[in-house]
Amino acid sequence: MTWSPNKVALAALAALAVLLYLLGPVLMPFAISAGLAYLGDPIVDRLERRMSRTLAVTLVFFVLSALILPLLIVLIPALIEQVRQFVADIPNYLDWIQHTGLPALGIHLPPELRLDSANLKNVVSENLPQAGGLARELLSTLSRSGGAFLGFMASLLLIPVVTFYLLRDWDTLIAWFDDNIPERHRETVRGLARESDFVLSGFLRGQLLVMISLGTIYSFGLWLAGVKFALLIGIGAGLVSFVPYLGFISGLLVAGLSALAQMEGLTPLLYVLIVFMIGQVVESMLLTPWLVGDRIGLHPVAVIFAVMAGGQLFGFTGVLVALPTAAVLAVLLRHAMTRWRESDYYGQP
């Protein structure tokens, strides 16, 4: 059987897909490193005009570390404490829903559907110490398992190392790929690469800034409103805001329930509504038009499917790369549909 270049290319792509699937468990640090290198490359390119690229990469690493590490040191313990408190308060929320929230709406649960709040509180109280020490128990388990602990630590240590080398050699890698594209396809591939870069920059850089901004607005606003778990709810709503209106709706529901169960009257609920309305207005009128624009071109249903499919196929790594991959596939699909409509077969009666 004679193998044409197209068949060889398809076979190579199939083999690459199988290889990536088999190597899924070890791809996480490399996927994160590639994303960080892509985000940092424009900054390094600007600094490279005044200094060597290696020095520019080192400077970027130093500045980012000085900004991010103190923030993580402050945020992570606060989030862990709020998660612990939230778990402890779940019985109180359920009790409020059954005896106050639903009756206020004219809904009365039959006795067989009601939860025993007192028993649930006892269960939570008995297990909360273990939940509070979950991090210590996990660390102890990883330490006993030896290999898993070393693998986890190696993955964390690999991220800055791989990011440094990818960022330093990013332009060289791009030039190498460009040189190995056949001459007759080079302009087409370059055009697709430029369009993919436009889409990815809109998602990775723009959407990341939108998520951070919304998380900050929601957290600070809920804190001013007196909501108990302002940081946890605000950051959670900001993180899921890559799906249009999902962060707004989920955050409003959780924060509203927390405010109603925590304080008397409807005034706290009004404050929560104002916070999320301000966040929605700022996102739709300022953040998204300035930072993202209309670049991604993915339907919200496609966004949800991409995240779920990526998680199913590659676990946490798949979740990380799902949306960037879907954005690039959308560019390729639009190009394929254009070629299809221009073909003679499509124009036949």
Can you describe what's shown?
This protein is an all-alpha fold. The chain has a domain at 25-180. Helices cover 84% and strands 0% of the residues. It has helices spanning 5-22, 28-47, 53-104, 117-132, 134-145, 147-168, 170-179, 183-225, 230-239, 246-262, 267-292, 300-314, 316-342, 344-347.
Topology:
Blueprint: H1 5-22, H2 28-47, H3 53-104, H4 117-132, H5 134-145, H6 147-168, H7 170-179, H8 183-225, H9 230-239, H10 246-262, H11 267-292, H12 300-314, H13 316-342, H14 344-347
Helix pairs in contact: 2-3, 2-6, 3-4, 3-10, 5-6, 8-9, 8-11, 8-13, 9-10, 10-11, 12-13
At a glance:
Helices cover 84% and strands 0% of the residues. It is mainly alpha-helical.
| Average of pLDDT | 79
N-to-C CA distance: 35 Å
Instruction: Please estimate the helix content.
Output: over 70%
Give the H and E element order.
Answer: HHHHHHHHHHHHHH
Largest sheet composition: none
**Secondary structure tally, helices:** 14
Shape: globular
Q: What is the percentage of strand-forming residues?
A: under 5%
Radius of gyration: 25 Å
